[in-house]
Write a structure and sequence with these properties.
Blueprint: H1 2-31, E1 38-39, E2 46-48, E3 54-59, E4 64-65, E5 73-76, E6 82-87, E7 90-95, E8 101-105, E9 107-110, E10 115-117, E11 121-125, E12 133-139, E13 149-157, E14 162-170, E15 175-181, E16 186-194, E17 202-211, E18 216-218, E19 222-225, H2 239-246, H3 250-263, E20 268-270, E21 275-280, E22 284-293, E23 299-306, E24 312-315, E25 319-322, E26 327-335, E27 343-352, E28 356-366, E29 372-378, E30 384-385, E31 390-399, E32 406-415, E33 421-431, E34 434-442, E35 450-459, E36 464-473, H4 479-485, H5 487-531, H6 534-548, H7 554-558, H8 560-596, H9 602-626, H10 632-666, H11 670-729
Parallel strand pairs: 2-11, 21-28, 30-36
Antiparallel strand pairs: 1-4, 3-7, 5-9, 6-7, 8-11, 9-10, 12-13, 13-16, 14-15, 14-17, 17-18, 17-19, 20-22, 22-26, 23-25, 23-27, 24-26, 27-28, 29-31, 31-34, 32-33, 32-35, 35-36
Amino acid sequence: MVMKRYLLIIGILFSFGLFSLICAEVLTEMNILNGPPSLIQNIPNFTWATNENLINAFNLDNYFLDSEGLDLVYSSSSTSNITVLINNSNVSFYPNLNFAGTETVFFYASDGEENSTSNLVYLNVGTDTEPPKYSFLGKSISEIYQNSYVTFSAIWDDNVGLKEYTFSINQGGTWINYTNLFNGIQNLSSYTKQISAGGGSTVYWYFCAKDTSSNSNCSSTQSFVVSTRTFITPPSSSSSNSDSSSSSSSFAKNFILPILERERVENFTLSVDSFLISLKQGGSATRIIEITNIGNTNLSFNLSFEKTNGFKALLSEKGFTLEAGKSKKITIDFIFPKDIDPGQYFSLLVIDSIYQIKIPLVFEINPLNVDLDLKVNIFEEFKIIKPNEFVKANITISHVNDKIPLNLTLYYDIKDYYGNIYNSKEELILLESSLNLERNLSLFENFPIGNYLFYARASDEDYIAMNSDSFEVGLKFLFSSFLKSSFIFILILSFSIFSFLLLLKYKHEKNKEELLELYIKLLELKKLIHEGNYDSAANLFILIKKHYGEYISKDALNDRELLKKEIQKLTKKFDLESKPLIKKHLKDGKEEKEVKNTKEDKKIEESIEEKEDLNIIEEKEVKKNEEGGESEKNIEEKINNSVKEVKEKINKSEKVVKEVKENEKENKGEEKRNKYVKEVKENEKIKGDKQKKKISKLNEIKNVKEIKENLQKKEKLKVMKPLAINKKEGHKD
């Protein structure tokens, strides 16, 4: 019974639920209503030039809306001279060739059940003659320096529609144009450009705009003067330094003086003289600089930055005192925001102490999302160059992600670490996948020495990449300047070398003279002893001993035997010391003769050999005289005998010639006689030449003897004079 009740209750509940569902469905179907699409705003009129198509002029989804969210299907009324094409709600107009006039059109929207119609739209082709108008011209910053990035802008209005604008700029000689698209009846034209003109230069710029009817208009030409960077120079040590700095050129003031600031510091040194840092937008970097006090007193330091617009620079310590001989490391953090414009930025780290030093800081900021990669590498042989040469670098450009063809502007320049540009170029390139370019820039003749950057940048409206590499410009050796500055030194050096050579030659000749004089004195001494003139021999012996710086005892002067022994010792000593020198001089003389006479004929060589034989004969005669050999009479007798022998030989040869002539008469046959006569004559000449040579040798021996006799007489006079003086004064040896 209970079971039946439960089943009855369940059946009732199920029936009630089913009835509720059926009732709900009926109510829903009764409340659904479908309305037509709504035109939420009027479609504007369009005007454009003749023979031009207006593609994707507007989107119908922006003007129609279906309240039920159904997809709409669009269509348009027909026109006679303009074809209206609707593609996925985008509307384009294609006028007939050379058509100029006005057409009207309606646009329809349908959700499948209901339709809706737009306002009447006027299509004007070739009827607009009013150009765009500008109402504002400006630039992003007022104080513009070389290498600054400036955004130029203008506001444009048009009665029909804007199409494109062109920015034109002239930084020194040529106009460069940059064109971009824009639309609407009012819009802003803007372009960001890096200023490459130097300080003091005038830059000109303007905008032009074109509407959809090809009507164009240009703004007035604007201009500004690039400001010159100024650097604080340290106090000069003398008036001459200030005079020279005031007369230097502008680029020297901007570049050389900051370097001199560091070089003139005498009491502290820095571990670096510049920073080059490459980062991305929103990036940060940390660098360390070490300061060393090399003086003998404590120094106070204050550190700060100049020109940090757009980024933060944090120091671990801004002020401190450094003891003598101590060093301190300072940590510097550089932080760049994500919204900073990509480009190259320049700043200065200022160190104030007894002098002020400014360390240049160079930052290269690339986009956060890198689409291009650019690298600059200077060839090794161009890392150090001289003025009036050129620097050559390899520039590599490549895609990072999408490898689509790009028309890029490649700009590259030479600049210092303060942002001053010395030479630059710009060109258009097509990047498909990657490029490997070699580019060079020249330096002028008086280019200042120091460290520089070769900077390159590739960019268009959507992409930008940059990089740089450093190189050094060294001194050029100028011979004329060196000669002018070192003329006195070169003159003194040349005179000193010449004087030294003369002194050596003089000493050499003096030694030869002294050897010859001593040799003659020794011969004279032997002769005096041989003759028994011991008084004169003793005086001469004393002079010789004094020349050698040796002491002679009085006992040796009184004892003749002892004196002889002393003289023999001196003779042996002199032979040991002087003979090698004499032979050396003879050998040197012989070598000089051989060098001078390499191109002479055999007859001159024979005469040289004969003279050497004569010297040998002379040495033999000298040796005989040293041994106490022969007297003057014996020498004269030998000479006379040799002369007689020569004369006898000559007479014999004359007799032989006479006999030959007599035999010629007797002999028959002219040929035999002629041959014999020739042989006799040749023999006669040979014998005659030999006899003449012997006679000349004998004559030379006589001349040598006469020279020796003259020298001996002079030495006797030299010896006798001091003796005579000593006798007058009453001195005795």
